[in-house]
Automatic annotation (TrEMBL):
All residue ranges annotated as the ABC transmembrane type-1 domain in the record: 94-280
Gene source species: Candidatus Ornithocaccomicrobium faecavium
Listed Pfam families: BPD_transp_1
One Gene Ontology CC term in the entry: plasma membrane
Family membership: Belongs to the binding-protein-dependent transport system permease family.
Subcellular location: Cell membrane
Domain of life assignment: Bacteria
Gene Ontology process terms (BP): transmembrane transport
Membrane topology of the entry: Multi-pass membrane protein
Protein's name in the database: Carbohydrate ABC transporter permease
Record PROSITE patterns: ABC_TM1
Classification via CDD domains: TM_PBP2
Residue ranges crossing the lipid bilayer per the database entry: 27-52, 89-113, 125-146, 158-180, 201-222, 264-283
Length: 294
């Protein structure tokens, strides 16, 4: 009884121990859990099937209905990796992702700093324009961007132009601006009194206090750059600098067998998962900011 008595407040959460005292609530909770388990199965089954299928040989893949392979063909993964030249694709994809993450954090963060902290002249107009740009799909400026690459001669085998799209995201600028406005201005005033300029304030005060938003931006930039296909395909195809997504697409027209394509799909999803697992803990951090006393 003491356990139930502890959860009498209606603000305890969606599912409370106190609700379990009523039969209809117990039935509803069971149905909710059953629906969640079913949805989880529908989402996880293709991933689990792909994982086990990559360890099968070609005959077992088409003849056996069992998900779990009879024998684990570990050498097959190494053969597919070497045959598809995925090491080179991994290198260029990571090269692109690192540049996109840096540009996204630095340039979008500086824009958010100018709008949320400095509040330069005309910042309200710029903020209104950013809100309007949120209504424009990301592909809306694709033609103009690619034509600019062609006219500048940077559309053939050069990967650094792909960084430019990550450095001017209206949504990311909006997140930085809103987050920076929640940081007490006492920090900025104290730093200004000590002679710090805007660069020092941004790099030594703002960024260390903004770990959650930096982690979110890094995850979005990394996954977006890793899964980007169209622009890398137009700029990097047949240059020896193909990214993972371009390499994965090119295998469909180069006579690669189904097993190699499945293994290539598995190779392509591993880095984003690892990157998310590393940085997701920073998103959940409670960014406790205390005021400056005195």
């Amino acid at each position: 009884m003491t356990l139930f008595a502890t959860y009498k407040d209606k603000s305890d959460g969606v599912i409370r121990f106190y609700d379990l005292k009523e039969r209809r609530n117990r039935i509803a909770i069971v149905l909710i859990y059953a629906a969640c388990i079913l949805m989880s199965f529908l989402f996880l089954y293709p991933v689990v099937w792909l994982l086990f299928a990559c360890f099968k040989d070609t005959n077992e893949l088409f003849q056996s209905l069992s998900i779990i392979p009879q024998e684990l063909d570990l050498a097959g993964l190494a053969r597919s990796w070497k045959r598809l030249d995925f090491g080179n694709a991994y290198f260029w994809s990571l090269y692109q992702c690192v540049g996109c993450v840096i540009c996204s954090v630095v340039f979008n963060g500086l824009c958010g700093y100018a709008l949320g902290v400095v509040k330069m002249r005309g910042h309200k107009l710029v903020w209104s324009l950013l809100m309007a740009l949120l209504l424009v799909p990301s592909t809306g400026g694709f033609v103009v961007l690619y034509r600019s690459f062609v006219q500048l001669g940077i559309n053939q085998g050069q990967i650094w132009p792909l960084y430019l799209g990550s450095g001017g995201s209206p949504f990311t600028i909006m997140m930085f601006k809103v987050f920076f406005e929640g940081i007490p201005r006492d920090y900025f005033e104290a730093a200004s009194i000590d002679g710090a300029n805007h660069v020092n304030i941004f790099s030594r005060i703002i960024l260390p206090l903004s770990t959650p938003i930096v982690a979110i931006t890094a995850i979005n930039a990394f996954t977006g750059a890793w899964s980007d296909f169209l622009m890398p395909y137009l700029c990097l195809k047949n240059s020896g600098h193909e990214t993972v997504m371009v390499k994965l697409f090119m295998q469909t027209g180069q006579g690669a067998n189904v097993l190699d394509q499945l293994r290539a799909s598995l190779f392509s999803v591993i880095p984003p998962i690892i990157f998310f697992c590393i940085f997701q803990k920073y998103i959940m951090n409670n960014n406790t900011l205390s005021g400056v006393k005195g």
